[in-house]
Structures are given as structure tokens and as C-alpha cells.
Amino acid sequence: MKDFLFNFKMPEYFFVTGDPLIYGAYVSIVLVSLGILFVLTYYKKWGWLWREWLTTVDHKKIGILYLLAALLMLFRGGVDAILMRIQLTAPSLNFLDADHYNQIFTTHGTIMILFMAMPFLIGLMNIAIPLQIGARDVAFPALNAVSFWMFAAGAMLFNISFVLGGSPDAGWTSYTPLAGNALDPGPGQNYYLLGLQISGIGTLVTGINFLVTILKMRAPGMTLWKMPLFSWSTLITSVIIIFAFPVLTIALALLTLDRIFGFHFFTLAGGGSPMMWANLFWIWGHPEVYIVILPAFGLFSEIFSTFARKKLFGYKAMVFSMLSISALSFIVWVHHFFTMGSGPWVNSIFSITTMLIAIPTGVKVFNWLFTLYKGRIEFTTPMLWALGFIPVFLCGGITGVMLSSAPADYQYHNSYFLIGHFHYVLIGGTVYGCIAGLIYYWPKMFGFIMNERLGKWAFWWFTIGFNMCFIPMYIVGLKGMTRRMYTYPAGLGWESWNLIATIGAFGMGIGFMILVWNMYYSFRKGQRDTTGDPWNGRTLEWMTSSPAAEYNFAIIPKVKGLDAFHLIKKEKAAGVKEEEVELKPIHMPKGEAFPVVMSGFMFIAGFGFVFEWLQIGAIGVLGSIITMIWRSFNDYDRDYYIPVEEVRKTELAAGRRV
Amino acid sequence: METTTSTTKGYRPMEYASEEGRLKIFGFWIFLGAEIVLFSTLFATYFVLVNQTAGGPSGKELFEIKIFAMETFLLLTSSFTCGLAVLAMRKQSKRGYFGWMGVTLLLGLGFLILEIEEFAMLVEMNAGPTRSAFLSAFFTLVGTHGIHVTLGIAWVTGVMIQVWKRGFTPVTSRKIFMTGLYWHFLDVVWIFLFSTIYLLGVA
User: Fold this and answer.
1) According to the model, what pLDDT value does residue B8 have?
2) Where residue A2 sits, what CATH number does that domain have?
3) Which of A26, A326, A477, A600 is the most exposed place for a label (fewest CB within 10 A)?
4) Average pLDDT in the A268-280 region?
5) Boundaries of domain holding A156
6) Is the Cβ–Cβ distance between A382 and A437 less than 8 Å?
7) If you compute the radius of gyration of chain B from its CA atoms, what whole number of angstroms results?
């Protein structure tokens, strides 16, 4: 018992030492934490923080928390990217050593996919979906908070790795045997496993939550075929999440068992199969890339239709192409390792399924173009990002078709050509979609519009920088530069391209900083949105005030067709009288402490397992189970009613007739 | 089935009476769908590794028909009694609910004890999970099911205490119904474990 309680393994790993950058990081972490504590205490904001944010179950606030976390992670992942680009600017540089470089490309990839793209899109879903389908919240508000706090715990765990214990360094794909205990001892890889595990559970819960919300809580009259495209894309994404994430859960759990408890799933010594990791990882991993692209497609569809002032072209074809993409996403995973000996038959089949994906995607691109055709296009910032998306995504898509051909892939595999390809689709698709959606929904979140001039500067810096950064990667890839090399000798013809790429990366960084500055600038001086409908929108979310009241809709709207709000506005203009509806008290959930507390225990558990301190891990697991039991016993009286008087007051303050 | 207990149109059993209850039960079905994917992945892993014994014992040498037949008998019966308990809840019979759910718990505990004994025996025979890839996969798959049963027992117990204190309300009857779904689900998973791991293992 004593051996168990006081057995602290790997003390030598605990503090990362030796690099002045790391010491700087320690100092700044301590100073920033003290600063936050001081500000919160000095301005007496602890109660406010607890009541309004930490225990909130309001989907709009949870959405804002997600976006805040995603922007922080975009910054962290972006700094990783800049560090890598500096190291590769010229041949034989020694800015980073090989170990450090391995850690940085690992954290860059993992953070950008799982802790940036996912929460960014889930944040936008949280903000828009209940409003868009005319609901007062998601189906399970408390679980929604659990999702966020689990994600936050996982992300925080992953991020402290660079000062405590060292970062994972086996790539974001974490292939075995490289990621196994024999070749990669220490806590680094455990951070990857536990961080992803904890946040992955949160994502699964989000998937279930949004599936139920969209299927069961749409406003009266909104049949599935009258549902806006962003809601459709979220619904389909939720289905993919529900089918894909359990596979990740298992894959991570098996590797954790291998590393911490000496099991033999992936170790050859006991008869395990390292290739099984690659299969399990990509059975989750390929659907995952559609999880991060489909919501972006949904956002683009909304934005194109809004700013072309037209109904979306080919609505049903759009939905069917998303459905077929989601089905195909599960049967293409082998294309990530054509070169690992699956044989010609298997490779051929997976080549064909991969090429098939180009068809529904092409359908979508044409439908967007036809939506623009003869539209009265308004070049607002969200629209600029959406318009920019089409050419860059096309470029990424076409190189994707090139990669899908198995024999040709033997040439491209793990070269910078691949890096170019997936950054073109992930940045060109997902990041453009996220930023477009962020600016589009910004007034709905905060009640003011982001400055258009600064927004356009950010767009052009980012877009020019992006193309400068990644077109050279296609070229050096074809010239033989492989991914994940930390330095290269002179004389291979790669130098000037790498220099251009680094300059481009800084351009993207400047674009990001203008975007962030714009948030602050517009907060101070931006145009306030008093109508709730700053873009002349077509869907129900623009019917609420900006920011929407806690209960979203005082009276749940009746939906008569696609683009419901557009129809309502048209009717109003034609002089059709609104129905008089009596206000009723509104049923709302109370805030809860349980999500943040339980996730705190999960964080402790994760931290314990990272260092293989099983006693700490046990405390964390036990704590979260007890919190759950406590919640089950207090599952009564979790709601309250907002009285009619208060609703009327809020509505009148927002300038509405009630 | 509902129409036999009531002739009124639109009758709903208590667990479905509230919007919240309907949403939560539907959500729980979806969750069980995710659980199926989870177990499928473990099954697939097991079948990839089933012959990778690394010179150690195979299933044929390890699995004892008597033990797993008994485990199956206990768990399948518990699923039946669990169904009876949910029916008793529908009939508002507290005695029936506590009686049948109590039997379910005892059967579940019996199953768990047998499984733990089986695991302990294997470890003693130097056939623990670290012995070979086959045993890693076996312990993880069967153990994951076992952990689910353990959590199920804890959950059912917790719900029973709540019913004891509050009686049958829309909230507690929803919880009873959901624990029932969960318990049946574990039973279904066990049928696959029994037939593909144990029966094929000793064949």
C-alpha cells in the first residue's frame, strides 16, 4: 500500500530544463497566472467568473468559451509553425535541434486539428445551431458544459507538456512502434494519449447532444428539408463523430495500456501489430478530417447565400453530397499508408473510394458557384473569406486527387507535396470557414460588427501569406524534400522556396494579429448592431436580438420554408399581419458546477497517468465518479421559469413589440 | 404494448411523459450506438490478434466451459429479471421493482465474481494480459465489458436509492428505464463475447 501511495515514477522528467526558452516560459506562466489572480481578486470578479462563465449551461456562452480556447490554441499552434519555419528558412540552421523540432511538429499538428479546428467549429455550432433551428437551448445543456470542460481539461493537459515532462514527439499520428515505450519512454507521449482521450470524450458527447438537438428540437414547421445548410452539416458531422470517436477512444486506450501497463497490442515482442495502430488511427482520423471540413462547408453555404442575396443553388444536391461524403469518409482510410505494404488489390480499392470523394465535393463547389451566378454579391469580410476559399480549396482538392492514385503516391508519400496538400484543404477549407463564420456570427455573439477595413487587411495578409507559404511546399515536395526533416543541406535546389515559405508564414501571422487587433478595435469603436440582423440574413438566428436573450426566442417562430427568416421578412413587407401570441413563462435550466468540477478531476487523473503515478490517477478517476454520483442524486429541481414580466421587459428593451 | 395498458389515445408511459425524458432516452439510445462502435473496435482488435500468442497459451488451453457457461447463465437471467423490474415500474409496483432489480443486482454480482476469479486464475497461470498480444486483447475486451457491468451495478444501486426516497416520478422512472436499456445492452454484448470469443476459442 505504501509502495503504491508514494511511488512517484520518473522524477527526472518532471521539470523540463536546459533551454533558455523554457525558463522564459516558466517565468511568464507564473507571472501571467499571478496577474490573472490579482486582477480577478482586485476587481472582485471571482463570483462573476464562477456564476457567469464557469458554471454556465447557456449554449451561447459555451460557444464563446470554445472560440476563446480555439483562438488561444490557434496562437499556440501558430507559434509552433513559425518556429518550424524559422528553422527551415535556410539550409543547416541550428535554431532548433532535432528533438525540439520533433516535439514542435507534433504539438503543432495535434493542437491545430484537435484543439483548434474542432473547438472552433463546435463553438460556432454552439452559437448558431439552437438559434438557427429556433430552439431555446441544446437538448442537454449540462452535458454541453461537460463537453466544453472536458475539452478544456484535455487541451490544458496537452499544453502543459512543454514545461512539465516534455512534449510528445512522435508526430500527430503517433505511429507505433515509434510511439511505443521502447523507443519513446517518458511522459511526453502519455500527454498525447491522455490529453486526446479526455477531450475526445467531450467531443463524443457534443456529437450526441447536437444530433438529438437537431433531430428533436426544431421549431414547428421546420422539416428536415427546410433546415438551413449549417444545421444539416452539423447534423451529419454529429453522426460522423458518433461513429468515429469511439474508435479513437479505443486506439488511445490500447496504446496507453501498452505504454503504462506493458500490454502487447502494438509491440512486436509480444506478438502485437504496429500496423494496427495505423489502421485504428486512420479509421478515426479520416472521418475526423470530414468532421472539421463539413461544418465549414455549412458555414460557407450560409455566407454565400446571404451575401449573394439568393437562395442556395441545388439545396438538396448539397445535402446529398454531404451525406455521401460522410459515408465515403469511413472507407478511405488506407490511402494514408499506401506505401506500407497493403498490396495492389487493397490499394486499388482504396484509391477508387478516395477518388469518388471528389465527385460530391465537386458538386458542392459548382453549387456554390451557381449560387453566386447572377447574385447581387456584397463583398463583406465573411464573403471575402468564403470567396477566397473556393480557389485555394480547389487547389488542395486537385492535389488530393493526385495523391489518391496509389502508384503515384509512392512518389508523393510523406513529402512536402503532401504537406502542401493538406494545408491547402485544412487552412483553405477549415480555417477560412472558421474565420468567415467567426466574423459572420460576431455581431450575434457580442452585439457589434467587426471593422470591415481591418477585416479586409487581415484577409489579404493571410491569403497572400498562405499561398506564399504553401505553394513552395508543393514544389520542394516534388523536388524530394520529405516531411518532418529538421534541417537540410545546401545545394538541393530547395533554398529559395523555403525562404519564400517562411516569409509567407510571417504574412499569415500578421494577418492573424490584425484579426485579433480588430476584435479589440471594434469592441471599442466598432459599429453596434441594434437590429439583430446586420447582414440582412435569411435564417432564424438573425431574428433574435444581438446578443440574443438568454432564452433566445420569446415566442418560438413558425417556419414556412427554407430561409425562414427571409420569408417572414417578405411577408412583413407585403403587409401580412403578425399573429398575436400570448407570452408564456419560459422554462430554462439552472447553471451547474458539476461539469467544471468533474473535468477538474479528469485533469488530475490525466496528469497522474501521464507520469504513471497511479495513485494520483486513481484519485482523479474516483473524484470524477463521485461527482457524477452526486449529480445523479441532485438531478431534481434543475430548472426554473423566467416570468412573463421579465421576458416582456427584455423584449421591450431590445425594441420588440410584445 | 402501451396500448394494452391504456386505451386513451396518446398515452405515454411515465418515463416518456416529459419532453426532457423523451430527449434523454433518445440521447441514451444514441450513446448506446457509440458504445456498439466502441465494442466493435475491441472485437476487431481481438480477431486481429487472436493467433498472436507469442509462444504462450491459446484460448483453447485457457477457457473453461464450466465458468463461462455459468457466467452466461447468470447474465442472461439477470437481463430477464431486469426486464421484469422495468415492467413492475410501469405497473407502479414498488415491491416488484425492488424485488426484481435486487435479483438482477445479485445475478450481476455473481457474474462479476466469476469473471474476477477467472481473471485471477489466468494471471496465476502466468497467462496475464502482458503475456502475449492475444491475452492483451482478451483481457481488454472482456475487461471492458466487466467494467461496464461494474458501473451498471453502481448505477442501478444509485437509482434504487433515489426511487426509495422519491418513488416513481417522471425523473426516476426515466432513470429506471435507462438503466434497463443499459443492462440489456451489456447482455447483448455478452452474447457476442460468449459466442465469438469463448465458443470459437474452445472449438
Assistant:
1) 52
2) 1.20.210.10
3) A26
4) 94
5) 1-266
6) yes
7) 19
Sign of CA dihedral A628, A630, A636, A638: negative
List the single residue in A217, A243, A271 with the smallest CB-CB distance to B37.
A243
pLDDT at site A330: 96
Radius of gyration (Cα) for chain A, nearest Å? 25
**How many residues does this entry show for chain B?**
203
Tens-place pLDDT, residues A200-234? 999 999 999 999 999 999 999 999 999 999 999 99
Gap between the Cα atoms of A508 and A394, Å rounded: 20
> CA of A339: how far to CAs of A279, A351, A419, A601, in Å?
13, 12, 17, 42
Q: Which residues contact B124 (CB under 8 A, 6 or more apart)?
A: none
Which residues from A are below 8 Å from B30, CB to CB?
208, 211-212, 242
Q: Report how far apart, in Å, the C-alpha atoms of A217 and of each of A104, A130, B22, B99 are.
A: 43, 8, 11, 38
Cell 491459446 locates to B58
Mean pLDDT of A543-556: 92
DSSP sequence for B98-126: HHHHHHHHHHHHHHHHHHHHHHHHHHHTT
Grid cell of A350 as nine digits:
482504396
Closest CA relative to residue A591, chosen from A46, A54, A217: A54
Query: pTM to 2 decimals?
Result: 0.95
The C-alpha atoms of residue B91 and residue B87 are separated, in whole angstroms, by: 6
- A648: exposed, middle or buried (Cβ count in 10 Å: 0-12, 13-18, 19+): middle
Asked if B164 reaches chain A (Cβ–Cβ under 8 Å), the answer is no
Number of domains in chain A: 1
Q: Is residue A180 in a domain?
A: yes
| Distance from C-alpha of B94 to C-alpha of B96, rounded to nearest angstrom | 5
Shortest Cα distance from B179 to chain A (angstroms)?
13
Report the phi/psi class of residue A589: left, alpha or beta, with left for phi > 0 and alpha for psi in -120 to 50. Answer: beta
Residue contact A254–B45, C-beta within 8 A? yes
Name A381's Cβ contacts closer than 8 Å, sequence gap at least 6.
A436, A439, A450, A452, A455, A456, A458, A459
Looking at residue A381, the DSSP 8-state letter turns out to be H
Which CATH code is given to the segment(s) B64-202? 1.20.120.80
Q: Distance between CA B15 and CA A430 in Å, rounded?
A: 41
Residue A126 in domain = yes
CA nearest A430: which of A290, A293, A232, A235? A293
A276 contacts in chain B (CB < 8 Å): 45, 48-49
State the cell numbers at A454.
Answer: 481591418
CB spacing of B45 vs A140 below 8 angstroms:
no
Peptide bond into A187 cis (omega under 30): no
Say whether residue B167 is in contact with chain A using an 8 A CB cutoff.
Answer: no
Q: Is B22 on the interface with A (CB under 8 A)?
A: yes
Percent of residues in chain B assigned helix, strand, coil, to nearest 5:
80, 0, 20
